[in-house]
Every structure is written in structure tokens, then in C-alpha cells.
């Protein structure tokens, strides 16, 4: 069974910037509250047909652009695992120590992607690196190291199960 017209609009809009709330409000313009759109878009993303469509379109885009997840991870790794000593050295000048910027030939080629910019400043050459913390966070999220939400799955017996039984089970009790 194919997607409904609204599901297709939602999925196509979602693929633009991966903002599900915005995509839902485009597909359903009568929805004005972000909270409502966020809740409904979350449910929409769990719909098997919508999920399959989005995954297929993402794979198609990967082939078309020739940009893969591996490529993105490698670029993030350049930023995340670069060290300032890849780009500068500390030299002993007798009475003081000086920071010496390495030539690009001396810098590791696989780390150059970590550089956000180089400029001549008031105190000499300044090297600005991309955000290492953000790169490591993105890598960690991709690897599933961080969980923003608790996922609970299973089935419940509708009227028999009480909140106390659920809490007991979560604590490791027999229920």
C-alpha cells in the first residue's frame, strides 16, 4: 500500500532538514502548535510505510550525491581526533617559549579537515580548529553511545497491569 498524500508531503519535507515538527506542520497546515506537531510527527516517523519511504529516499540520495555515512564519519573523525600539536609546536627560545605554526607540508594531511581557518592576527598567525566536542558528540550519537530518551517496549495486559507492577518489573522484581 502506498503512502497517503499527506504522508508523502511529510516525508519529503522531513528529508529537507530532518526537522519532523516542521515537516508535519507543512503537511498539516491547520496544526499550529509545535507540541502537537512534535507528538504527531514522532508517531508519523514510526509508521512503517513512512519509515521505508524515507530510508529508500536517503539511500537514493546517498547514491546520487556519492556522499556516504562513512565519508561523513571520517570527516568528523578528522575534527574529533585532531590535536593542536598536529598544527603547531612549542619551541624553546632560551628565556621564553614560542608557539611555531607548522607549514602545511609538516601538518598531517589526514588532519587538515580539522582546520576551520588560518589568519594573520595581531599576535601572529592564528589557527582556528572546528568544534572537537561537537564532532565527538556526533560520532558518539552515530555509534549509539548516548541515549536522549528511554525506550520501553513490550506488551501489557490491559486492565490487569498496574503502575506498581510495572515499577517492580523495572526494578528487577518478578512482577
From TrEMBL:
GO BP annotations, alphabetical order: chromosome organization
Superkingdom, taxonomy of origin: Bacteria
Pfam families, sorted: Terminase_2 (PF03592)
InterPro entries: SPP1-like_terminase, Terminase_Gp1_N_sf, Terminase_ssu
Keyword Thylakoid: no
UniProt entry tagged with the keyword Manganese: no
Keyword annotations from UniProtKB, A to Z: Viral genome packaging, Viral release from host cell
Protein name per its UniProtKB record: Phage terminase small subunit
Amino acid at each position: 500500500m502506498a503512502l497517503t498524500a499527506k504522508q508523502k508531503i511529510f516525508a519529503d519535507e522531513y528529508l529537507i532538514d530532518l526537522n519532523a515538527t516542521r515537516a508535519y506542520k507543512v503537511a498539516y497546515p491547520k496544526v499550529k502548535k509545535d507540541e502537537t506537531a512534535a507528538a504527531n510527527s514522532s508517531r508519523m516517523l514510526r509508521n512503517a510505510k513512512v519509515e521505508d519511504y524515507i530510508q529508500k529516499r536517503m539511500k537514493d540520495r546517498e547514491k546520487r550525491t556519492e556522499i556516504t555515512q562513512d565519508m561523513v564519519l571520517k570527516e568528523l573523525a578528522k575534527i574529533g581526533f585532531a590535536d593542536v600539536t598536529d598544527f603547531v609546536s612549542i619551541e624553546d627560545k632560551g628565556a621564553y617559549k614560542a608557539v611555531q605554526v607548522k607549514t602545511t607540508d609538516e601538518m598531517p594531511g589526514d588532519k587538515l579537515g580539522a582546520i576551520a581557518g588560518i589568519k594573520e592576527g595581531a599576535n601572529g598567525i592564528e589557527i582556528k580548529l572546528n568544534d572537537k566536542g561537537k564532532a565527538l558528540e556526533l560520532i558518539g550519537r552515530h555509534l549509539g553511545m548516548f541515549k536522549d530518551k528511554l525506550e520501553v517496549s513490550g506488551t501489557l495486559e490491559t486492565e490487569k497491569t498496574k503502575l506498581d507492577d510495572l515499577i517492580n518489573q523495572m526494578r528487577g522484581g518478578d512482577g
